[in-house]
Write a structure and sequence with these properties.
The protein is α+β, with helices and mostly antiparallel strands. It is built from 9 helices and 18 strands. Helix content is 30%, strand content 24%.
Length: 385
């Protein structure tokens, strides 16, 4: 008879297995250890497990596990990676599960390797031989950076579940809609020279001043033409987060960089937003040929929209005793939704703990989450009427 780790031991082993994602190569880590652990545990529970290499990553893999036959079914999805941790700001080792004050501390305890431990415990308690529709578990790569894991999986169309849950920390509230995220860099390349003769140079700061003026017009356009009252901030936002140009007061500035962040609403895909950005800067680009360049700081995330009154939203809301809601942060939901399933973001813990020193999961969520997962599996994979 096979023996399985209990919930705490599963948490401990997952947290002890580093899987940091970072755009910087020196900080980026493989997720191989995490997907290997999950594959071993799920195989022992009777799942068919497949690892899939993720393109455009540093050797990362997705894991897809399936149990049960038939059409439709339920997909439980989550990411295997974590953000880097702040050296010296943790009160304990981020890779050691520490239990204190009814909290389980550790990097990934809340966001979101701990979710897999709860899923596995729920499956252990289910009569999987009674499943008339399949249960899928997806453990994805690189959510914290590029979302290339979820993007590649969605493009593969490997499965067609009827329902999906993404186990991000929502306090067990079903999230049916969120904004997207676009991070762009604008560089002005001018010509440096002595400040005593401005005609001999091209001041990049002065051109950037005009660029910012156009961006503020775009910001106003977005606020006036795109609205969704369900959000606390019901329009797309634009933030100027970083600017740098020049090197001395007596030199004409030859280069100036601006980094901006835009959060589009559902209905405004990233491609359309990028076109708007180019459109608003087109006249200046013609006036200063070759001086203005727009680049992607890092891959963006599409906005996501489901329906609060959909069958799946209402069922999860009823069982969780939590009304469907919207959030401003981005997840893998728009890519999972491309599989054609009713998709929600729903999981234990608070988003306030994500990406923070001393990340933790309140232990009050543990048994409650397992019980709710069992009920959701029953409705999606067993119930016939």
């Amino acid at each position: 008879m096979k023996t399985f780790p209990d919930i705490k031991q599963s948490f401990r082993e997952l947290i002890a297995t580093p899987s940091i994602s970072a755009l910087e190569a020196e900080l980026d880590m493989s997720n191989q250890g995490v997907v290997t652990l999950l594959s071993q545990w799920l195989t022992d529970l009777g799942f068919d497990c497949q690892m899939q290499a993720v393109p455009d990553t540093r050797g990362k893999h997705n894991l897809l596990a399936k149990i049960g036959q038939g059409r439709g079914g339920l997909l439980l999805a989550g990411h295997t990676d974590t953000v880097p941790f702040d050296e010296g700001r943790w009160s304990q080792d981020p890779f050691t599960l520490t239990e204190k004050d009814n909290r389980w501390y550790g990097l990934g305890s809340c966001d979101m390797k701990g979710f897999f431990a709860l899923v596995i415990e729920a499956v252990r308690q289910m009569p999987t031989q009674d499943f008339v529709r399949p249960l899928y578990i997806l453990a994805s790569a690189d959510e914290e950076t590029t979302m290339n894991g979820a993007k590649a999986f969605a493009q593969s169309k490997a499965i067609a579940p009827e329902y999906a849950l993404i186990g991000e920390p929502t306090g067990l509230k079903p999230v049916y809609m969120h904004k997207g995220h676009l991070a762009q860099g604008i560089r002005i390349t001018g010509r440096s020279g002595h400040s005593s003769d401005p005609a001999k140079g091209l001041n990049a700061i002065e051109i950037m001043h005009q660029v910012i003026g156009q961006l503020l017009k775009l910001k106003q356009h977005l606020a006036e033409h795109y609205r969704e009252e369900a959000f606390s901030v019901p329009y797309p936002t634009m933030n100027f987060g970083h600017i740098h140009g020049g090197d001395a007061a007596n030199r004409i500035c030859g280069c100036c960089d601006l980094h901006l962040d835009i959060r589009p609403l559902p209905g405004l895909p990233l491609e359309a937003l990028e076109q708007l950005l180019t459109q608003y800067l087109a006249e200046l680009s013609q006036r200063y040929p070759g001086a203005i360049s727009i680049s992607q700081l890092y891959p963006g995330s599409q906005p996501f929209a489901g329906q609060a009154d959909a069958q799946w939203s209402q069922l999860v809301a009823e069982l969780s005793n939590q009304a469907p809601e919207v959030v401003n942060y981005a997840t893998e939901a728009p890519y999972i939704q491309q599989l054609g399933c009713q998709t929600l973001v729903w999981g234990p813990g608070s988003i306030e703990q994500a990406h923070q020193p001393d990340e933790y999961l309140d232990t009050a969520y543990i048994n409650k989450t397992v019980d709710l997962l069992k009920q959701l599996m029953y409705h999606a994979c067993i119930k016939t009427s």
